[in-house]
Amino acid sequence: MGYFSRHLPGALRIMIYEKPIFRTMADTALNIEFGDETSIPMNFKILALDSAIAADRPKGLLETNPQVRSLGIVYNPLVTARTRLISALCDLIDSLGKTVKLPSRTVIIPALYNDPWSRECAAAFGVRDNMEYIAEFNHMTPAQVIEAHTACDYWVTGVGFVPGAFMSYAMDPRRRIGAPLYRTPRSWTPARLLNFGGTTSTIYPIRVPGGGQLFGRTPINIFEPEQQNAIFKHGPVLAKAGDRHRYVAISRDEYNDIRAEVEAGSYEYQITEDLFDCADYTAWLESLGEPAEKRDPDSSWSTE
Amino acid sequence: MLEIVAGGLQTTVQDMGRQGGQCLGIPPSGAQDGFALRIANLLVGNSPGGPLIIRDDPGAAGLEITMAGLKLQAKTDLLVAATGADMGATLDGVPVPRWQAFMLRQGQLLAFGMATSGARAYLAVHGGIDVPLYLGSRATHVRGRFGGFNGRALQAGDILPIGQTRADSDTLVGRQLRPELVPSYGGAQEVRVVRGPEAHLFDGASETAFYATAWQLNPKSDRTGMRFIGPELGFRPGRPRYLIEEAGADPSNIVIDPGAPVGTIQVPSGVEPIVLGVDAPSVGGYARIGIVISTDMSIIGQIQPLQHAAFVQISHDDSVAALKQQEALISESSVVS
């Protein structure tokens, strides 16, 4: 068994491949696929490899795109051959030890739950109030949904889709809630609406089509192309893979006050940066006996 | 300076796009037909920039004119070249040649009609369109409302600044692309693809059909995605339970994954393959039957609504050879005076 073991010790059996698979994405890209499930511990490995690449960038490698189960790579095939790049990446993968700690920021996201914009948007597309649906789907009341969503950190596994969008997952499996995507996506959604797509919790950064179940709105910008606020000095996108998001419920008055500050460029984003202990977290997950056995890796879907 | 008299269907400022945005959800944007824009820039003495996605230099910014209708007027004498789709461009009512540099004199009106072949025309101006760089590029991303001219498509009354010009630019008049290199956009087009990471999820007959079909471009296509009308594709039976839980019950669902920056062919529910364009999302959740090679994104960008196209599978090595071949063409050796 190598580093990329198919089974983590104890109860934590997840669908991680024995060895990552290098997927050819035509001439200028490849994906390093570690598995085919949504797993925070698997994402730790991907982010560790991403950091290793940043520190020792193989020749010809131009961009990385870390996501929940794979690392996207963009490279210049006129500078390096695919086989040579893969060999350099394999060396980096082999050099990774057990992922113990990762740099990770805690980002506080104020949220107005049960907001009028989510309700209006649902009504405009002729579907029932999404918060009611989410509550029913999770056998909870709307108040319990809010309680659960604000009770633990959400781990950002990757940033992307549209500018500034991200995917995040509840770090406490006992608090995990969610709801299926719309069967027919909406043609528009107002910016900054909180939503669930399965167990993925995210926020629409701009007005976009989408199928997530809407349940709140944040007054803060997660994408600011004008880069007005100091927090966006180095780029227009707030979220970073490896962030921990913590949602805080606010009132309509607080929402209005914060929104005014955000629009004036004076809002102070609440962000703290430290190292996250991945090994501790993984051990804690195991102590919870989580995840419950959901699948049998030996009957896995053949990958090629 | 250039004044827009009519913006047409959708005209945007584009160069060879952004880099480094994949981890931020920021697409490369840039010219959907990079070959046509780069040749236009070469003809008027601008930097053509590097190839889509992997460029070192975004090159000079020009205009991408979609399907029809741009009209503009020069505020000063400018050397320009129009390439790409044939929109019957006229200069004060007189037809102008495509793929050739000419002078647009102060006060003259350059007008583009409906595209008769191809879908996107490009206009390069000696000196380049001098809008501010945003994240290293002048490309417009309309949905994100950034880059280009105020992050939007051009409208009547917009005045576009032009970069530094050389006094002797009129000596470049008449430079043209070698006639044998001018692409033909009519008839059924062939688009080369490398097999995709989830091709094995489709049933064998469907993968065969994918390459055997004369697909038709759905008119509801844009720079985010080009959808193709044709037979429904099926998937192998036996989808495991964990994937249903993780990704959804639809056989085309996969766990969220980075795509290629452009060219990824997703087939949601097996219906209407979508080739992701230069403004496409940086992640996806649908099975990818193939990836269009970067050079052929130019062909994709010139297919008209309801025009036919076929996908041809090639190897990764051949896709790199195609890129090398294209890069050899973006040079003075392709220009005649």
Written overview of the protein:
The complex is a heterodimer of chains A (304) and B (337). With 304 residues, chain A is an alpha+beta fold. Chain A folds into 2 domains: 118 residues, Gyrase A, domain 2 (2-Layer Sandwich), CATH 3.30.1360; 166 residues, Cyclophilin-like (Cyclophilin). In chain A, strands 5, 6, 7, 9, 10, 12, 13 and 14 form an 8-stranded mixed β-sheet that branches. In chain A, strands 1-2-4-3 form a 4-stranded antiparallel β-sheet, with helices on one face. Chain A is globular. The two termini of chain A are 21 Å apart. The N terminus and C terminus of chain A are likely disordered. Chain B is an alpha+beta fold and 337 residues long. Chain B folds into 2 domains: 184 residues, no CATH class; 141 residues, Cyclophilin, CATH 2.40.100.10. Chain B has a 7-stranded mixed β-barrel with strand order 13-20-17-18-15-14-21. The mean pLDDT of chain B is 96. At the A-B interface, β1, β2, β3 and β4 of A face β13, α3, β16 and α5 of B.
Q: Beta-strand level of the residues of chain A, as a percent range?
A: 25-35%
Task: Pick out the low-confidence regions of chain B.
Answer: none
Strand fraction band of chain B? 25-35%
User: Domains counted in the coordinates of chain B: how many?
Assistant: 2
Estimated radius of gyration of chain A: 20 Å
Q: Please write the CATH class name of the largest domain in chain A.
A: Mainly Beta
The chain pair with the largest interface is: A-B, 61 and 58 residues
Low-confidence spans of chain A: 1-14, 292-304
Helix/sheet category of chain B: alpha+beta
Helix proportion of residues of chain A, in percent? Answer: 25-40%
Tally of strands of chain A: 14
Task: Name the overall outline of chain B.
Answer: elongated
Number of strands of chain B: 22
Mean pLDDT of chain A: 89
Number of helices of chain A: 7
Rounded to the nearest angstrom, the distance between the terminal CA atoms of chain A is 21 Å
Looking at CATH, which topology of the largest domain in chain A would you report? Cyclophilin
Class per helix and strand makeup of chain A: alpha+beta
Cα Rg of chain B: 20 Å
